[in-house]
């Protein structure tokens, strides 16, 4: 006996899909049957990912999006819905960080983090949710009413971490934002949940984790290991599934016990 989650017929928009977790999220949802819209600024990398997904038999589309630019968000979402169809699932994944002590944070570096992680995440979710709400009210076409919004927060949004204080602050805002969205948008059949990953090894941070400082950090973790992007696959697909309709406003740690320690 087996249990199967099938996302065939669903359209999923993944922001920050050109690398790291975003790439894995896109591959996972495409494998589960969803048509995936790959959004980001690095178009050539998105096109390469699209080719990989299509070669495996999946359905993928590319759209340029800068989440720090509200006009870009609106144009990208409109383009995606015109080309692929109504967006049923949003993976709100774009994120950046800086490494510095709080006393060294400048206005520019503060804005750099918050404009992407908090402001960008909010207005991307808002744009998609408005369209989901219109379908739920019957004022916009679409075969599926309701929707799934998954905000990618961080273990850093649940506890403080040295040298990335502004990042932690921005992700804590995403955690609270998720709860507010769940409360306000749930009546439209939209569920909004957050995944809070711990330390996940990606192409962008692998060099650090192979350094002496990185190895020392890993040795301090509960099970002295890093996560891999694929470790989030099952949780992601579950939150996107029609069967997860009762899960709304959940803040789910996926950090191998890091925030429990």
Number of strands: 9
- Radius of gyration using CA atoms only: 18 Å
How many domains? The number is 1
- Distinct helical segment count: 8
Calculate the terminal CA-CA distance, rounded to whole Å: 36 Å
CATH superfamily: NAD(P)-binding Rossmann-like Domain
Percent strand equals 15-25%
The mean pLDDT is: 94
Strand arrangement within the widest β-sheet reads: 3-2-1-4-5-6-9
- Identify low-pLDDT runs: none
Name the shape in a single word: globular
Q: Characteristics of this structure?
A:
single chain, 261 residues, alpha/beta, Rossmann fold, two-stranded parallel sheet, 8 helices
How would you characterize the overall build of this protein?
By secondary structure, the chain is an alpha/beta fold. It has a single domain (11-254), classed as NAD(P)-binding Rossmann-like Domain (Rossmann fold, 3-Layer(aba) Sandwich), CATH 3.40.50.720. The protein is 42% helix and 16% strand. The protein is built from eight helices and nine strands. The protein has helices spanning 20-31, 43-55, 70-83, 107-136, 165-185, 206-209, 212-219, 233-240; strands spanning 11-15, 35-40, 59-64, 89-92, 147-152, 190-197, 200-201, 227-228, 251-254. A seven-stranded parallel sheet has the order 3-2-1-4-5-6-9, with helices on both faces. Strands 7-8 form a two-stranded parallel ribbon. The chain is globular and about 55 Å long. The relative contact order is 0.14.
